[in-house]
Amino acid sequence: MLERKGKNDYTMKNCLFSRSRVLGFLLTALALATIAASKSKLDSRVRDLTDYFQSVQQDSSKAVPAEILSKAEGLVIMRDYKAGFIVGLSGGHGVAIVKNKATRTWGPVGFVKAGEGSFGFQAGAQRDDLILVLMNSDGLSVLTNPNLKLGVDVRATLGPKSAGDQANFKTDKTPVLVYGDTKGLFGGAAIETGGLFPDGGDNEEYYDQKISVNEVLTGGKVQPTPAAKLLAEKIEQYAKPAVGAPAAAATGKNEEVK
Questions:
Q1: Is the residue at 1 inside a domain?
Q2: Which residue among 85, 155, 209, 217 is buried most deeply as judged by most CB within 10 Å?
Q3: Mean pLDDT, the chain, as a whole number?
Q4: Residue 91: domain span
């Protein structure tokens, strides 16, 4: 009888062990599936932002001129803003991409989000998405120092659209040029507060490691994904005058986003 009880205990332990292994396997599979789904969603975001960039470049009233793109040190593509007279920046998400100083090629993408703040608009103005062209080290600092505020600590200017406009600015004095859906912006439009912040959770999920946005963009610790390479290809494509976006009619001097 004791022998039978021992066998029953052994069988029960084996059964519990087997169930634990199966449960562990299922939990692991679920976790991997969740991670894969999250990475796929982030990858889709990069591709969506690439599509938005291309759509801007195909519209002469919004496009970043080829000469500006060829001189750019970095780009930030933001989406998900709302419309209104004063619009908060909270809720905006995007990606940043920086040119390697040594190779002069575009690197991996880093995920960023907008901090709290506001743009000034004309009444009824509509503007959902923006491209920030970072022209020099001061412009890049908005990615590396979240304490800096666009238009406050770092000057931001509505980007020139024509050759005549381009002659009116110097890249050392205009760290950030604003393009995209800027139709509603008027002279003196300003970012009153707020800045760009790294989206740590998204960067960690996308690259399967705990990593800062600085390490992603300039640290050489990760390689560009296929989606990032596609974005880089589009930037290079439109940085060439022969195939770049057509220049818009001259609109006068740049308007500063103070």
A1: no
A2: 217
A3: 73
A4: 55-257
